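queue> pop job 88
queue> type: inverse folding (structure -> sequence)
queue> payload:
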């Protein structure tokens, strides 16, 4: 009997109707004889809605309480899916991350999974039940409830698959991983296969279809990930060890970035201050004598107090925290291919825009620009480099 972990994203369980359809899909798999553990995300925009509630109460909500609040989103979908399965005559039981044995670090809002102890999950699977686990959450050694960062349900699924020795299927509203988000580039094509490194680089560059930490987990544990569409056909993208051959994997867009531009001499202290405030930054290419630090704001939840601290601490610091994003061409060897950077710069120039910063590494070339230019830059870079 094969054990499979299936993860369903927020859009797949966005309303009761979709939940029932997911339940039917899970039920069919169970009836076919597989042992099924399901990881769910919060329904639709539930996580954003909960965050908005917190922001109405405080501009800088305590991260511990945010975790208590946000984990409620996945508890709702896990319970409803279990109810739907039982209604369809399939035995099921739901567990929070903590009950499922997801042990994490203490870092609220950006916790890392340290260990999975799926004792209760195994027991219930052995009884023939479908086990539903709330994604995106765990518990620390001090019994604090934590979350794994936005998009963290993927990580729950991969970690659970590794612990159970199961296959891992990730279902969303797109049929796999495309050379760009098909909502942005409708002619983007599906990649049949991606290496862990390519997928991780795409995820880090903003591709939402799989979470970067999840892919890292899959790489270190050797788990194969299959990304498919929930209500679509059999098309999929398989993520596993690759050949490392040079090629372009895709174009990704990331929004909600902040650029912190300090004197080069202040770089180390500024990086340390940001890291201590749970807003880790990376240095990118900027003007001579300056250090441009990029902060992803997604898991920061209240950058203003931090920006104020930076302004107090560093003379001449320039902070742009709104309306900034990046376009990255991801692929093995792209930094060594001058036409990749040229295409990105030409795409921006064609719009009359200039890059605010640039960066290139072994798996990607990035331009940072105002948000309003990102979609057209991505489309044109895709057209020039991929088609
Ligand atoms: N619900 C969480 C989020 O929206 C986790 C997830 O969807 O994976 O980020
Ligand atoms: Mg979600």
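queue> result:
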């Amino acid at each position: 009997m094969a054990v499979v972990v299936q993860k369903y994203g927020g859009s797949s369980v966005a309303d009761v109707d979709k939940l029932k359809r997911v339940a039917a899909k899970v039920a069919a798999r169970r009836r076919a004889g597989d042992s099924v553990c399901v990881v769910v995300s919060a329904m639709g925009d539930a996580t954003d809605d909960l965050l908005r509630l917190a922001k109405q109460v405080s501009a800088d909500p305590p991260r511990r309480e945010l975790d208590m609040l946000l984990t409620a989103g996945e508890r709702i979908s896990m319970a409803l899916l279990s109810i739907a399965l039982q209604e369809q005559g399939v035995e099921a039981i739901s567990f929070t991350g903590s009950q499922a044995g997801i042990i994490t670090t203490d870092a609220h809002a950006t916790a890392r999974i340290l260990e999975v102890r799926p004792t209760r999950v195994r027991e219930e699977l052995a009884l023939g039940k479908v086990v539903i686990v709330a994604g995106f959450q765990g518990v620390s050694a001090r019994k604090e409830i934590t979350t794994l960062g936005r998009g963290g349900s993927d990580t729950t699924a991969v970690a659970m698959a590794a612990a159970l020795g199961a296959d891992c299927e990730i279902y969303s509203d797109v049929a796999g991983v495309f050379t760009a988000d098909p909502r942005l580039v409708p002619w983007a094509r599906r990649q049949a296969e991606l290496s862990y490194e390519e997928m991780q680089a795409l995820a880090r560059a903003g591709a939402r279809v799989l979470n970067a930490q999840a892919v890292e987990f899959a790489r270190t544990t050797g788990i194969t990930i299959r990304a498919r569409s929930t209500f679509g056909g059999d098309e999929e993208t398989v993520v596993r060890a690759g050949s490392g051959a040079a090629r372009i994997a895709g174009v990704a867009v990331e929004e909600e970035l902040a650029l912190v531009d300090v004197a080069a001499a202040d770089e180390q202290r500024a990086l340390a201050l940001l890291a201590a405030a749970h807003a880790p930054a990376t240095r990118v290419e900027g003007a001579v004598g300056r250090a441009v630090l990029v902060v992803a704001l997604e898991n920061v939840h209240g950058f203003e107090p931090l920006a104020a601290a930076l302004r107090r601490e560093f003379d001449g610091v320039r902070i742009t925290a709104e309306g900034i994003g990046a376009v990255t061409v991801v692929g093995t060897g792209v930094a060594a291919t001058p036409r990749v950077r040229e295409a990105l710069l030409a795409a921006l120039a064609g719009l009359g825009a200039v890059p605010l910063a640039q960066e290139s590494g072994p798996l990607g070339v990035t331009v940072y620009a105002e948000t309003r230019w990102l979609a057209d830059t991505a489309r044109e870079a895709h057209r020039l480099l991929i088609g």
